[in-house]
Design brief:
Layout (H helix, E strand, L loop, with lengths): L2 E7 L7 H14 L3 E6 L5 H14 L5 E7 L2 E5 L14 E5 L15 E2 H12 L4 E7 L14 E2 L1 E2 L6 H10 L15 E4 L8 E4 L5 E3 H13 L6 H14 L9 E4 L17 E4 L5 E2 L12 E6 L8 E11 L4 E7 L11 E6 L5 E5 L6 H8 L5 E3 L10 E5 L3 E6 L4 E6 L4 H6 L2 H10 L6 H4 L2 E8 L4 E3 L5 E4 L3 E8 L5 E8 L5 E3 L9 E3 L4 E4 L1 E2 L2 E2 L16 E10 L27 E11 L26
Parallel strand pairs: 1-2, 1-3, 3-7, 4-9, 7-10, 20-21, 20-22, 27-36
Antiparallel strand pairs: 4-5, 5-6, 8-11, 10-13, 11-12, 14-15, 14-19, 15-18, 16-17, 16-19, 17-18, 22-23, 23-24, 25-26, 25-28, 28-32, 29-30, 29-31, 29-35, 33-34, 35-36
């Protein structure tokens, strides 16, 4: 197995890109990467593309590959877009700015568009699944820089020759009608969100470097030799970047396979795990929004070496909870007196409501089954099935164990020959979905600051629906519109909970910390470039199709950005650090409908589009 990295620093008026590349090279070589660098005059369009193709050609199935870019990032209107092509073409595109970009002409385009970069990443993934992409530039989140004279890394000049260039890309078979989203199984690290700026600055020691790159290298150094995943590492990087003077709007993020261990295909078992924001006192990076409650207890563990069990550092219990974080009282273990970097908190006792389970009296092996169920704090045995929200009924004969919901839908069956614990563990996703549905907001004020409308999308019109009780066919599409009536920005996230308790954060790949809505702005889930297309809910292939099933949609509106991708997974966990302000407010609006299994649903779910008011006014470059 080989580890190879392509590191690019395109200066073009910036002064930190060569230092960025040298810093990344120094750190990656300690991870046993063979690094190829392009800086200064070598970082041309042809040089970058040629080196990327070489990276693809040399990659093998067991190899690890990294592409790193430091330089300007651009965002420009799509010259081919027109009102007549709403929904067919994106309104804008993003691009990297090589050193020879100013030499572009109408027939010789020297930037690298998001379409090309996505195509190159796909080519690399075809050779190896272990791909990591790091973009330290402005507008980085959709391209698939404090103290000491900060400079933004945004490129504002409109690119010449882009229309002819897009036509040439299409002739090569590269799709330019999409927005260049990156593969979900690639680790994609971005210095900032799509419409934000990334910065370079001068450190206290006089080093000119990009802010995100500096803290990323520090994090990689601390994590070396331990089992740390990307989500936890980038959470620490984001915390440090935001804390720098003048950098509060730059929020690095990781998209795609964020639970992977660094430069590995192995993923963290993050069931219920939360990260810890170090400080005095330390705080758990998750509050009431992620289900943390007073009385919850955790064991705090240091990152472990590969193949070793995590080292216990302390036990802690929750002393106070706000919307996005929680206070910890610690009892250190043995000789430990402080928490190391990348400490994780694993729950050992939760005060949250458990999923009610009713075992039919005539169930075969009932006593043994109830003993096994009692081992899980997420599950609660009830003696009577009436009046228990979210109840699951278990029946069993000599051949199989069957779980059904209160609507009579068979959720799953397991052969009795299978291990009983494995069968009971199949109930945990339903317990986690049940817990999520009980989530309540912490602010009545924010609840009055937005308006919510949802409904179905027809061929020529849309139909608004009530918050609950409607029935949709599985081939019907729906929209959700959120209007901000406040004089401040709000952030909107949406989580769909399907018939089989599958959870899907609908903004996970586009805006994992929520779609930002400025004052009086609107966002429409199911709108693409001004056209209402809707989204659909898929019926699980192996689920009982005889009766309609309930689908729920949680619309979470918060006063600050907060990463909720943890709510998709196994229990409550988070990489998101506590926001800069302790006054974190959020509201939860709940929609639900019955989904009719027939006919078969289409699986082409459009990526949620940005609000029509976006992009916001451009930030002034340095």
């Amino acid at each position: 197995m080989k580890r190879r990295a392509l590191l690019v620093g395109s200066a073009l008026g910036l002064s930190a890109t060569t230092n960025d590349v040298l810093a990344m090279q120094s750190e990656l070589e300690l991870y046993n990467f063979e690094c190829h660098t392009l800086t200064e005059a070598a970082a041309t369009r042809a040089g970058i593309l040629g080196a990327f193709h070489d990276l693809i050609e040399r990659a093998g199935p067991e190899d690890a590959a990294v592409f790193y870019y430091s330089g300007h990032g651009g965002l420009a209107p799509n010259p081919r877009f027109s009102p007549a092509r709403i929904g067919q073409l994106p309104k804008s595109f993003r691009y990297l700015v090589p050193i020879d970009y100013p030499q572009s002409t109408e027939q010789d385009f020297r930037a690298i568009t998001n379409h090309e970069l996505g195509w190159l990443i796909e080519g690399l993934r075809a050779r190896t699944e272990n791909v990591t992409v790091v973009l330290d530039c402005c507008h980085a989140a959709r391209i698939t820089r404090g103290a000491g004279n900060p400079s933004a890394k945004a490129w504002r000049s409109p690119p010449p020759g882009i229309a002819a260039h897009l036509a040439r890309l299409e002739a090569l078979g590269i799709d330019t009608t999409m927005d260049g989203r990156r593969p979900t199984r690639t680790v994609c690290i971005s210095a900032c969100a799509e419409h934000d700026s990334a910065y370079e600055y001068t450190t206290a020691t006089g080093l000119r470097i990009s802010v995100m790159t500096q803290f990323l290298c520090q994090g990689l150094a601390l994590a070396r030799g331990g089992e740390v995943d990307w989500r936890n590492l980038i959470a620490r990087v984001r915390e440090q970047v935001v804390a720098e003077e003048g950098m509060s709007t730059q929020r690095p993020l990781v998209e795609g396979a964020a639970l992977r261990l660094l430069f590995s295909l192995d993923e963290h078992d993050a069931n219920g795990i939360l990260t810890v924001a170090l400080g005095s006192p330390p705080r758990l990076a998750g509050g009431s929004l992620l289900g943390v409650q007073l009385g919850d207890r955790y064991v705090l563990e240091a990152p472990s070496l590969p193949g070793q069990l995590p080292e216990r550092v302390a036990f802690g219990h929750i002393t106070d909870v706000d919307g996005a974080s929680a206070g910890l009282a610690l009892d250190f273990v043995a000789d430990h007196v402080e928490l190391p970097a990348h400490t994780l908190a694993r729950p050992i006792r939760s005060s949250r409501a458990a999923l009610p389970i009713y075992v039919e009296p005539e169930a075969h092996g009932r006593e043994q089954l109830e003993r096994e169920l009692a081992q899980f704090t997420e599950l609660s045995l009830v003696t009577r099935p009436e009046a228990h929200e979210g109840l699951v009924r278990l029946s069993a004969d000599q051949r199989e164990l069957r779980a059904m919901n209160t609507s009579g839908i068979t959720l799953f069956t397991r052969p009795r020959a299978a291990a009983l614990r494995t069968s009971v563990e199949a109930l945990l996703p339903f317990a986690h979905a049940h817990d999520l549905l009980l989530l309540e907001g912490n602010s009545a004020a924010i609840d009055r600051e937005f308006e919510l409308v949802w409904g179905t999308v027809g061929a020529d019109s849309s139909l608004a629906l009530p918050a609950r009780g409607s029935t949709l066919r599985s081939d019907e599409r729906y929209f959700v519109r959120v209007k901000n009536h406040a004089q401040r920005s709000l952030w909107v996230s949406m989580i769909e909970i399907g018939v089989a308790a599958e959870r899907r954060l609908l903004n996970a790949s586009y805006a994992p910390e929520g779609w930002e809505l400025g004052p009086d702005a609107s966002f429409v889930l199911g709108e693409r470039d001004g056209r209402l297309t809707g989204v659909s809910s898929a019926w699980p292939a192996d689920l009982d199709r005889s009766k309609p099933g309930c689908v729920s949609l949680l619309v979470i509106v918060s006063s600050q950005p907060h990463d909720l991708r943890s709510l998709e997974g196994k229990g409550v966990r988070s990489d998101a650090r506590a926001p800069a302000s302790a006054n974190f407010e959020f509201a939860v609006a709940k929609l639900s409908f019955w989904l009719d299994a027939a006919p078969m649903p289409t699986l082409d779910v459009p990526e949620p589009a940005q609000p029509s008011e976006w992009p916001p006014p451009a930030k002034r470059p340095r």
